[in-house]
Amino acid sequence: MDKSLMPKTFSSHKHWFSSIIHSLKSRTTTSSLDGHSFSPYLLYSYDNVAHGFSAFLSKEELETLKKSPGFISAYKDKSVTLDTTHTIEFLSLNPTSGLWPASNYGDDVIVGVIDTGIWPESDSFKANDLSKGVIAANPGVNISMNSARDTMGHGTHTSSTAGGNYVDDASFYGYASGTAKGIAPRARLAMYKVIFDEGRYASDVLAGMDKAVDDGVDIISISMGFDEVPLYEDPIAIASFAAMEKGVVVSSSAGNAGPALGTLHNGIPWVMTVAAGTIDRSFAGNLTLGNGETIIGWTMFPASAYLDDMRLIYNKTYSACNSTKLLSKVPADAIIFCDKNGFLYDQVDAISGANVRGAIFVSDREESFEMGMNWPGVVISSKDAPVVINYATTDKRPSATIKFQQTILGTKPAPAVALYTSRGPSPYFPGILKPDIMAPGSQVLASWIPTEPTARIGPNVYLSSEFNVISGTSMACPHASGVAALLRGAHWDWSPAAIKSALVTTANPLDNTQNPIRDNGLNFTSASPLAMGAGQIDPNKALDPGLIYDATPQDYVNLLCSMNYTQNQIQIITRSKNYNCSNPNADLNYPSFISLYNDNTTSFVQTFQRTVTNVGEGAATYKARLSAPEGSEVEVSPETLVFGKKYEKQSYELTIKYTKNKDDEHKVSFGELVWIEDNGNHTVRSPIAVSPLVIDSGF
Question: Known catalytic residues?
Answer without folding.
Answer: 115, 154, 474
